[in-house]
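User: quick one, fold this
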Amino acid sequence: TWTLTGPMTTARFYHTATLLPNGFVLVAGGSISYPLTPTESAEIYSPADGIFVSTDSMSVARVGHTATLLPNGKVLVAGGTNGTSEQFSAELYTYGLFGGFSTTGNMGAARAYHTATLLPNGQVLLAGGQKDTVALKVSQLYDPATGQFTATTGPMQAGRYKHTATLLPNGKVLVAGGLNSAGNPIASAEIYNPATGTWGSTDPMAARWPHSATLLRNGKVLIEGGLTTTYPQLYDPVTGTWSNTGARQTPHLGHRATVLPSGKGLVVGGEGTGGGVLASYYTGRNTLWV
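Assistant:
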């Protein structure tokens, strides 16, 4: 069952929420109204008290940014748009009495709607994104030890934004789908190899956006939903190939997918391809995937 908790200090959407090592949650940025009105504000949720309290504000307002928990317990907030232009800047959030946001090295390219993936070596891979109307191929690594961004050995093979990025059991990163510069869903995926710093293509996949990418316990990745297809696909990192799996009864997009302790995947909510918002679990709109 669901129960209400304390309200946020600021109503917002398209924000980030990051679980901190102490069990608190950092909520940062987002839009406070529609059309998009980005905010620089941030707040902390305390599960024990069930309340939100304001914390230090970011240096700039951000929507379409990323927030990544680093091994040192700090949170890297990078990129996004302030409503007028995409941002080069990044900052670190440190929780504590004398904590708050502090600037770190700038990204090499201003961008929003990119992905950020924590790698096993503690660095963060930032991939793709959008600048003005252009889908970017740029990819960079952030090193917490130096506080600097450096370009990967090679750029991505396709410019894309609003894609997904999944860390695979072998330490590589699968980037899938998203939108191109024309705003159309992309029918491709690619793999980042941290050993070489380069990107390589996978077999073609169905064009998808907005979709979900879920790492299953068997090491495969379930790609689900999107505007242009009704059937999910599985990526096998061992063979490097895609396979179709059973179609859902309700095509959907903008949903969320989570792996349960049983190993099954729970797909919830989202929007139907006809534009209607999908109903809750109790009306049978959710599906369990093995």
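User: anything notable?
Assistant: Residues 276-290 have pLDDT under 50 and may be disordered.
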